[in-house]
Amino acid sequence: MPSSLPVSRRGLLLAGASAATALTLAAEAPARAAFHPRRPFGRYGAPADRLTPRTLYVHPGGAGDFTSVQAAVTAATGAGRVLVLAPGTYRETVSVAADRTDMTWIGASRSPRDVVIVYDNAAGTPKPDGSGNHGTSGSATTTVRPDGFTARWITFANDWLRADHPGTSGTQAVALKVQGDRSAFTHCRFLGHQDTLYADSPALGTFARQYFSHCYAEGDVDFVFGRATAVFAHCHFRTLIRPDLAGAPHGFVFAPSTAGANPRGYLVTRSRISSEAPDGHYKLARPWVPSSDPTARPMLTVRDTHLGPGIDAVAPYTDMASGHPWQEQRFAEYRNSGPGAVVTVPENRPQLTRAQAAAHTRESHLGDWHPRTGT
Question: How many Å apart are CA 140 and CA 289, to the nearest integer?
Fold first, then answer.
């Protein structure tokens, strides 16, 4: 494989996937005033004129309270803290403890392309202390544990590339792992390859609700996965080409691992799936039944969503493990459109009735929680 491919891909990860995708995201993003470098925090104040006493400012060049996101998180003790991030690339790993409840991160320019948190650990990357490899969870660029977390206009990325590490078997490389209940992401991007967005919960018996609105996620293998009760509304998912593979499938968009006792898993609504890979080279989903929870019954509902030609319309679902066939899980569709949604083999495309679809909504998944949906 030519060495220019991984280098180019890393640049695209940070720049915005592709020219076409960048244009699309620009069209989907809210209108904003031109960003002025002399006001790096835009409408959100500055250290000398704080938005609120509980607001902290992050600027990579030193114009804020901190130059790194992790330093600001460490200092932001207590509940209800706000971090305003100036435009820049923050190459670091960030871990937010569970006691930082109701924290908000804001990308100051109101464009997720301007504020990028990125690192390049994979599951097979050795830990600096020599105690073993990071593992999937440990590979995450950003890990968010508290309840009530909100992020707007931020890119979370992991730019680890298989081509740079041909001897590494643990190729999972998480951009964001989020575990808390009432976690909301609006106009954010999640960039990576395998296991990009880990929408999870802190424990098997905890049903964490998460909401992703007007977001963009890209990847190849199981790049949206986990056991959270997660709603993806007005989101764009993009599957990537795999120059290391000769044929299909290149990967899988969703890999939910919903606990059997949880009546609500992943809901994708009014969204779309596009692809830079050849037609039919991606599966819509496969169920993840982890060894830590062999009783899991993964749940995914995709409704009112445009499925592009990259999705295998004949057989959009497949098994991850032979003992847990997808047909025994909770996969369903309703009123989808596009070439990837054409029903040619009915038994491979479980469809909800209109009455059943009424129980698969944003409101049914989120219950008494009403996240902010505006810009």
Answer: 21
